[in-house]
Structure formats: structure tokens, C-alpha cells
Amino acid sequence: MTTTKAKTATKAAPKAASVKQDVTGFSSLEMPAAFREMAEKGAMQAKEAYDSYKSLAEEATDAMEDTFATINKGATDFQSKALGAAKANFNAGFDFVEKMLGVKSLAEVVELQTEFARKQFDTLAAQAKEIQDLASKVQAETAKPFNDGVAKAMTQWKAAF
């Protein structure tokens, strides 16, 4: 009679989770289907969020690489322009000194000096304008990939959430 009562008691108890014994002899609880579905949905959402953030990070990295490449090119162009201007100015100075060595009168010295100063002023003004235009161009080209990348990332981020 004891065995019949034990069987009845076991059958009457609600089954919240079944217990299984694995190969190692340890017991493990089997998760109810609702919890498993909720866990799978959470894992799927976490993976989607990770993929979205990974994509955004890759986009940002690409934008930064483009920005640095543009900065590098701009710096090279700027350096080339500055060295060209310096070379032209040194050559003009040496030409001036060479002409001064051949003068025969004070009037000729004043004339050469005035002509050299006027040419150098015009040359320096033109060089400064060229360098300023180049600097503006480099600044605009440098900001463009970064701004475009940030705008694209923000659009994707807003769409993802």
C-alpha cells in the first residue's frame, strides 16, 4: 500500500520542470519552452544589436581612414606648395644679389631695390593667396569623408533603433 500512495503522490505533483540525468551523473533542469523562446529571442536581439554596432564601427573606421588619407594628401600638397614658394623666393634673392654686384651708381641700386621689393611683394601676396586657397581646399576635403561617415552612421543607428 505504501507503493501505491507514493505513485499517486508522484502523479499528482505538478510538473514545473523535468529533471534529466546526463552522462556524468549530474542532474540538469530542462527549461520550459516559454523560457527557452524568451532566451533565444534575447540572444537573437543581442546578435542583431552586435551586428549593427559592428557595422557602425566599421563605417566609422572607414570614414577615419578616408579622412587621414585626405589629410596626408593635403599635407603633401601643402608642403610641396610651400617648398616651391621658398625655392622661388630664394632664387629671386640670389638673382637680386647678383644684379646688385654689377651696379655702377647709387641710382641703379635704388632702382634695383625698388623693383625687387615690388616684385617680392606681389610674389608673396600671390603665394599667400595660393597657400590660403590650398588650406581651405584641404580643410573642406578633409572634413567631407568624416562628415559623410558620421551622417551615414547616425542614419543607420536611427534606423536600427
Automatic annotation (TrEMBL):
Phasin domain ranges (all copies): 55-148
Domain of life: Bacteria
NCBIfam families associated with the record: phasin (TIGR01841), phasin_2 (TIGR01985)
Protein's name according to its UniProt entry: Phasin
